[in-house]
């Protein structure tokens, strides 16, 4: 296996052609003057063109012809070479010593003569005609260095790993596939074994440097399951590693904890990432390690309003379909789209949902120290990358940026790097992924050799090394970036270069009226003739010859090329291209606010910033308006399929603001209204206080830009959990600090923050079915859930998901805080969002009297606090049903704990009072929060809901026990078999450590040693024969049982009892059934690799969605779900299917914990 860090070896022909190009083009190809951007100077904040003398464009055509000549010459010569020379490689000369001798450099004279004798006869004549050799006898002198360079390249050994090669590493670990973790390189043949491997004949010397890119956990696991010798002899490739059954099991386990999915652009540019971590148009991802109150992996309880008609007389705003007469385009089409206008018969496509992964390739070339140097192309890339990052949440690690001011050779915009990056951009693209391509640099034209251009010329772009390597033709870019894409993949491309109108060879080009353009060849030929006459009158004989050639080509080409392109280049992929000029125009450099920039790149960003919600045709006109009167270039819009250029999305009037949907999902038929403000900014004086109602702002239509999430942080112990838990599940039970490389876990600084992070984050998303707007009474929630909700003719649901404050921003508490603020701000945020649903869900067609909330882990714990809010003394809660999944929270009852957390936070912020903290910059508090949460004790997130005497008058378990809660709700609840292991320290190895952990979980017990003794000797005794709670057999299992019941599973028992045993309760036991393992089943989307039992996934979804619709989980097609009842019966979701068992939480331990005797 070739090491993945190595650059992929080019094909032999391409290597030979490159060597030939270096010799030929360097001598003969002048710079393409006519293709350069024209420099423009002007005053600050003004675009002012400068008229420059007309230049001759002949050089550009010459460069194109030379490139074609090199291609032709390479094909002729290469085909005549000996077969063993054409297939020459490093492996070949290692396997056959005679080849190494035969082609040893310098080449033997007789061998060279033999090669020359077999060349096609016209070769020497062609070289002499182009002035490359003076006489046919010089052929050997010309060809010898080319052949020797080709041989040296193809027979060079694979390079050893160097940091410069890290750019070629794969996006994720090569064993588990996770892309959100740092990667390390693993020597497949350990260095300690190199000498032995060669001596014993296991491997050849040149094979020793193979590496694989692995996450730290997989790297450590691999070295634990095999010795160095076993790695060298048996596991010397990733393919061999993945053949082992134990590795496969290991790899499948962490695959359940992938990084959250992301939103993608709905049309011309990328769309905003939704504020809630995990997205709203897509299902929330499984929380890593169950989440917590300090980080962003928690599941907010998302209310679901049903799709029935709103109650009569409800007047809180409404849906607004703006009439077309007022200039507002209609909403997107509702059905599959059929290709037309000459496209292949029977083809259909759908606009991309843009809910998948985002990737961007940005290229800017200034051509430093070359003729025709440009000034603004690198600035274009910087501006575009910042725009994508700040406005649409594109992560820097998901961008490849190639500019010629970078020191790293891999980041230079050479031909090889550009082509490699294009392949990277489209690699593994899936439906609904969204890709973004931006090129700013020289563009030009070259003679069309395959007859696919109306004007007889292909469009090209010029890499920084075009003199040596040649240009890149539109045919090749189309083949790489368009033909390879699946239906439903979005590629948005911007070409800010000359002659770029059809740079991707997309067959559908649209006018500023949104009308499909068709070539008027007679008109174009007439314009060409007029140009000939004008050039002759000026005495410009060069232009006469050049234009005359184009005139005759256009006049004779006819419509057949256009029609053939419709048939062969129409694509079901959703590719949109914005180009800076027509094919026969140049693009220009500009100077905007003192910065050199490309006019097209500047206009594109400026137009979208002024109005981010435009239809395709509106944006095309907006871009042209930005340039009108300043430049002659005409930006173009083209597409890979017929395009509805008037697509726009519906608007809802909320009374205090107007909000427009950010995307339309044609597959599901629903709209996503992203980032709707439900509260005033919790900044400045509003910090650490209850949320306030938002101000009225009806002056503009809100579109959800920019994307927002609340500040969040992760505790450092998660890094240890990631490594040790798989090993524990594999049988290891003893760990110590030397088992983990803790020194490298910090990464040398604070973690990089998501660019969407902002303190002003109190927003929510609403996903609404199109059918509701048509009064059909059907809705969609998270797509994978609502598909199930409608699978048997059900009503369906509307899906709402909210941001709320986290960490110190949302959970500070204690007497000091409450004297000048509000405790549990995160819970108060949730309550205001739920009240927003009651007030406004009817505007989306939902019923405020049929709202179900569901949430997992901390989200489920939040639901318990909402159910018991104010001890039930303030009337019904703002929802009617609840589905808490693995509801969890640490019992924070001690004022001392709360005060200590506050004191530490203020000290980290270098202030002493809450009022001083309100005056600090957000960034200061963000860092303090990251440091404090990062240093949380093992299993803790430092912050969470706490008893405050107001919203939380006591622990939810106590309140449920004493009847202080809303008793009108319908409840479906569930938990997993091993909730606590993810939060259990591997260093608890004896009874003393276990007792210390009990006190760490409940600090108030430090004053009550008798209670600690009762917990450690009666509830969870040191008896390791499997007879105790959860069948523990060691100290880690014992601690996991304590954490499971105290923090998670007993909470489900409290709810079941409180609601008179009339609840529906499930028990998820599919191995390993850790905290969060049920989430991939809840949001199963048809990818069988994501779940071990498709039957369980479908059953779980049907249970949840039918309960949300009807109050009962039971529907046809799944096993009957019985109520909890007097027998404490729960639905067991196990690897073999679904069955009924007795609730394991109905035990004396949970009864004892509910009394909260430790308070």
TrEMBL record:
<feature type="compositionally biased region" description="Pro residues">
    <location>
        <begin position="262"/>
        <end position="273"/>
    </location>
</feature>
<dbReference type="InterPro" id="IPR003615">
    <property type="entry name" value="HNH_nuc"/>
</dbReference>
<dbReference type="InterPro" id="IPR019819">
    <property type="entry name" value="Carboxylesterase_B_CS"/>
</dbReference>
<feature type="compositionally biased region" description="Basic residues">
    <location>
        <begin position="33"/>
        <end position="42"/>
    </location>
</feature>
<comment type="similarity">
    <text>Belongs to the type-B carboxylesterase/lipase family.</text>
</comment>
<keyword id="KW-0053">Apoptosis</keyword>
<dbReference type="Pfam" id="PF00656">
    <property type="entry name" value="Peptidase_C14"/>
</dbReference>
<dbReference type="GO" id="GO:0004197">
    <property type="term" value="F:cysteine-type endopeptidase activity"/>
</dbReference>
<dbReference type="InterPro" id="IPR011600">
    <property type="entry name" value="Pept_C14_caspase"/>
</dbReference>
<dbReference type="Pfam" id="PF00135">
    <property type="entry name" value="COesterase"/>
</dbReference>
<dbReference type="InterPro" id="IPR019826">
    <property type="entry name" value="Carboxylesterase_B_AS"/>
</dbReference>
<keyword id="KW-0378">Hydrolase</keyword>
<comment type="similarity">
    <text>Belongs to the peptidase C14B family.</text>
</comment>
<dbReference type="InterPro" id="IPR029030">
    <property type="entry name" value="Caspase-like_dom_sf"/>
</dbReference>
<feature type="compositionally biased region" description="Low complexity">
    <location>
        <begin position="309"/>
        <end position="327"/>
    </location>
</feature>
<dbReference type="InterPro" id="IPR029058">
    <property type="entry name" value="AB_hydrolase_fold"/>
</dbReference>
<dbReference type="GO" id="GO:0006508">
    <property type="term" value="P:proteolysis"/>
</dbReference>
<feature type="domain" description="Carboxylesterase type B">
    <location>
        <begin position="669"/>
        <end position="1153"/>
    </location>
</feature>
<dbReference type="GO" id="GO:0006915">
    <property type="term" value="P:apoptotic process"/>
</dbReference>
<dbReference type="GO" id="GO:0005737">
    <property type="term" value="C:cytoplasm"/>
</dbReference>
<dbReference type="InterPro" id="IPR002018">
    <property type="entry name" value="CarbesteraseB"/>
</dbReference>
<feature type="region of interest" description="Disordered">
    <location>
        <begin position="260"/>
        <end position="342"/>
    </location>
</feature>
<keyword id="KW-0645">Protease</keyword>
<dbReference type="InterPro" id="IPR050452">
    <property type="entry name" value="Metacaspase"/>
</dbReference>
<keyword id="KW-0788">Thiol protease</keyword>
<protein>
    <submittedName>
        <fullName>Uncharacterized protein</fullName>
    </submittedName>
</protein>
<feature type="region of interest" description="Disordered">
    <location>
        <begin position="31"/>
        <end position="63"/>
    </location>
</feature>
<feature type="domain" description="Peptidase C14 caspase">
    <location>
        <begin position="357"/>
        <end position="643"/>
    </location>
</feature>
<keyword id="KW-0865">Zymogen</keyword>
């Amino acid at each position: 296996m070739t090491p993945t860090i190595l650059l992929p070896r080019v094909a032999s022909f391409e290597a030979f052609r490159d060597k030939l190009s270096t010799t030929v083009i360097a001598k003969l190809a002048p710079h393409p003057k006519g293709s350069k951007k024209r420099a423009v100077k002007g005053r600050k904040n003004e675009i002012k063109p400068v008229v420059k003398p007309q230049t001759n464009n002949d050089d550009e055509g010459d460069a194109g012809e030379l490139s074609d000549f090199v291609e032709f010459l390479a094909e002729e010569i290469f085909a005549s070479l000996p077969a063993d020379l054409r297939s020459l490689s490093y492996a070949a000369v290692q396997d056959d010593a005679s080849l190494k001798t035969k082609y040893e450099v310098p080449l033997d004279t007789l061998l060279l003569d033999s090669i020359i004798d077999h060349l096609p006869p016209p070769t020497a004549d062609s070289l002499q005609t182009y002035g490359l050799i003076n006489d046919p006898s010089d052929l050997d002198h010309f060809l010898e260095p080319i052949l020797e360079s080709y041989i040296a390249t193809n027979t060079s050994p694979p390079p050893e790993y160097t940091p410069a090669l890290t750019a070629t590493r794969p996006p994720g670990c090569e064993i588990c596939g996770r892309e959100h973790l740092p990667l390390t390189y693993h020597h497949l043949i350990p260095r300690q074994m190199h000498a032995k491997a060669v001596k014993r004949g296991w491997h050849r010397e040149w094979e020793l440097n193979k590496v694989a890119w692995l996450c730290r956990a997989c790297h450590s696991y691999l070295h634990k399951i095999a010795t160095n010798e076993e790695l060298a002899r048996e596991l010397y490739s990733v393919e061999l590693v993945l053949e082992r059954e134990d590795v496969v099991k290991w790899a499948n386990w962490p695959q359940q904890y992938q990084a959250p999915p992301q939103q993608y652009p709905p049309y011309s540019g990328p769309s905003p990432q939704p504020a809630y971590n995990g997205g709203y148009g897509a299902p929330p991802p499984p929380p890593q390690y169950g989440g917590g109150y300090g980080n962003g992996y928690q599941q907010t309880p998302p209310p679901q309003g049903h799709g029935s008609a709103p109650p009569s007389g409800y007047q809180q705003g409404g849906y607004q379909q703006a009439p077309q007469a007022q200039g507002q385009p209609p909403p997107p089409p509702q059905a599959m789209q059929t290709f037309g206008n000459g496209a292949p018969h029977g083809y259909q496509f759908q606009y991309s949902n843009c809910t998948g992964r985002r990737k961007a390739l940005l290229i800017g070339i200034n051509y430093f120290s070359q003729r025709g140097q440009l000034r603004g192309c690198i600035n274009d890339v910087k501006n575009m990358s910042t725009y994508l990052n700040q406005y649409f949440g594109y992560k820097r690690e998901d961008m490849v940026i190639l500019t010629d001011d970078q020191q790293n050779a891999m980041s230079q915009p050479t031909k090889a790097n550009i082509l490699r990056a294009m392949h990277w951009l489209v690699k593994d693209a899936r439906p609904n992924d969204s890709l973004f391509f931006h090129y700013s640099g020289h563009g030009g034209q070259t003679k069309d050799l395959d007859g696919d251009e109306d004007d007889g010329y292909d469009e090209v772009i010029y890499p920084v090394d075009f003199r040596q390597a040649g240009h890149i033709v539109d045919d090749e870019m189309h083949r790489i970036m368009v033909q390879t894409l699946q239906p439903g993949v979005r590629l948005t491309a911007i070409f800010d270069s000359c002659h770029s109108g059809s740079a991707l060879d997309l067959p559908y080009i649209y006018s500023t009226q949104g009308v499909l353009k068709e070539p008027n060849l007679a008109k174009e030929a007439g314009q060409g003739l007029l140009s000939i006459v004008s050039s002759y009158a000026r005495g410009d004989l060069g232009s006469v010859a050049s234009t005359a050639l184009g005139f005759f080509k256009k006049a004779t080409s006819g419509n057949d090329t256009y029609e053939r392109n419709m048939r062969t280049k129409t694509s079901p992929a959703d590719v949109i291209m914005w180009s800076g000029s027509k094919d026969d125009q140049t693009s220009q450099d500009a100077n905007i606010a003192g910065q050199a920039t490309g006019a097209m790149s500047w206009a594109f960003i400026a137009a979208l910033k002024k109005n981010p919600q435009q239809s395709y045709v509106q944006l095309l006109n907006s871009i042209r308006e930005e340039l009108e009167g300043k430049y002659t270039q005409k930006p173009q819009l083209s597409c890979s399929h017929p395009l509805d250029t008037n697509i726009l999305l519906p608007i809802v009037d909320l009374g205090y603001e107007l909000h427009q949907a950010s995307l339309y999902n044609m597959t599901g038929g629903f709209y996503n209204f992203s980032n709707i403000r439900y509260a005033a900014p919790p900044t400045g004086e509003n910090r650490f206080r209850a949320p306030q109602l938002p101000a009225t702002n009806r002056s503009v239509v809100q579109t959800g830009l920019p994307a927002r999430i609340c500040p969040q942080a992760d505790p450092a112990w998660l890094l240890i959990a990631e490594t040790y838990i798989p090993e524990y599940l594999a049988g290891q039970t003893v760990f110590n600090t030397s088992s983990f490389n803790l020194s490298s876990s910090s990464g040398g600084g604070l973690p990089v923050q998501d660019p969407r992070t902002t303190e002003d984050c109190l927003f929510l998303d609403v996903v609404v079915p199109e059918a509701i707007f048509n009064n059909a009474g059907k809705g969609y929630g998270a797509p994978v859930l609502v598909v199930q909700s409608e699978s048997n003719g059900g009503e369906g649901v509307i899906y709402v998901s909210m941001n709320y404050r986290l960490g110190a921003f949302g959970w500070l508490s204690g007497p000091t805080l409450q004297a000048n603020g509000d405790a549990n701000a995160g819970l108060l945020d949730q309550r205001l969002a739920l009240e927003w649903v009651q007030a406004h869900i009817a505007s989306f067609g939902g019923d405020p009297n049929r709202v179900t909330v569901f949430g997992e882990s901390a989200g489920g714990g939040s639901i318990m606090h909402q159910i018991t809010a104010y001890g039930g003394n303030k009337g019904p809660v703002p929802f009617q049903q609840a589905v808490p999944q693995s509801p969890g929270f640490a019992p924070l009852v001690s004022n001392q704990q709360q005060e200590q957390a506050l004191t530490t936070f203020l000290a980290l912020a270098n202030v002493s009072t809450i009022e001083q903290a309100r005056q600090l910059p957000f960034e200061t508090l963000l860092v303090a929060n990251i440091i404090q949460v990062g240093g949380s004790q093992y299993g803790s997130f430092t912050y969470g809901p706490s008893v405050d005497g107001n919203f939380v008058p006591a622990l939810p378990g106590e309140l449920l026990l004493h009847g202080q809660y809303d008793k009108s709700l319908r409840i479906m609840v569930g938990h997993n078999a091993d909730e606590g292991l993810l939060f259990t320290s591997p260093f608890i190895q004896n009874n003393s450590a276990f007792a210390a952990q009990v006190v760490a979980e409940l600090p108030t017990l430090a004053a009550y040693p008798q209670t600690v003794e009762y917990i450690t000797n009666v509830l969870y005794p040191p008896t390791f024969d499997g007879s105790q709670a959860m069948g523990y057999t060691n100290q880690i299992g014992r601690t996991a049982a304590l954490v499971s019941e105290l923090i998670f599973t007993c909470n489900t028992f409290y709810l079941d009892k409180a609601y008179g045993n009339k609840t529906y309760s499930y028990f998820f036991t599919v191995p390993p059934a850790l905290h969060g393992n049920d989430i991939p089943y809840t949001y199963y989307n048809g990818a069988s690799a994501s779940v071990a039992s498709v039957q369980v996934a479908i059953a779980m979804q049907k249970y949840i969605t039918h309960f949300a619709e009807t109050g009962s989980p039971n529907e046809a097609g799944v096993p009957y779900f019985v109520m909890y009842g007097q027998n404490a019966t729960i639905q067991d979701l196990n690897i073999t299917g679904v069955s009924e068992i007795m609730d394991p939480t109905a035990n004396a331990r949970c009864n004892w914990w509910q009394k909260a005797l430790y308070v």
